[in-house]
Amino acid sequence: MSELEEVRASGKRSERVLENNFRHFDHRLREIEEELKLSPYATLSEVIAWVEQLKIAIGKIKVIQESSIVKSKKEWGNLQDKMLDYMKIDTDFIQVFSHHVIFLVQLEQRYRQRLSIFANNLDNSVRYLKRYAKDLEKQGFSISGILAESKNLSDMNWLSILNY
Q1: CA 76 – CA 103 distance, rounded (Å)
Q2: pTM check: above 0.85
Q3: Which spans in 36-157 are helix H?
Q4: For residue 28, how many other CB atoms are within 10 A of its CB?
Q5: In whole angstroms, how far apart are CA 69 and each of 75, 80, 83, 129?
Q6: What is the mean pLDDT of residues 5-11?
């Protein structure tokens, strides 16, 4: 097997692994989204349970992020190392490396897009929770703990927390 074929095969193996990592990442986020669905007609006890689920989900998200997105970032470093390892860079090598760079750029865009969708879903639920808590306070219910929690959650910028 020629050096160019080895580089091409190595890139394809890496792309398959990274694609599987993304599928796993997407699947886990969909599971968390399902766990965090908050009905617009939620009862107070459902809202309280949702806040607790969100706290748990934040920890899961960080683990998912480390196991998926960090691997993608490492691949950029590996690619740079591989490119520097080859003394003979010709158009064939450049083409192979270029295809891999395009794959990595598109993969990074897919991660960002998926995280953006996830964060927007969370933001919508947090806004609902905040309105719900304020409305209950206006009606004379003492729910200072939930109101404080909803204010804390609404002050978070989910896109920056989840951004990598």
Answers
A1: 11
A2: no
A3: 44-85, 91-138, 144-155
A4: 17
A5: 10, 18, 22, 29
A6: 80
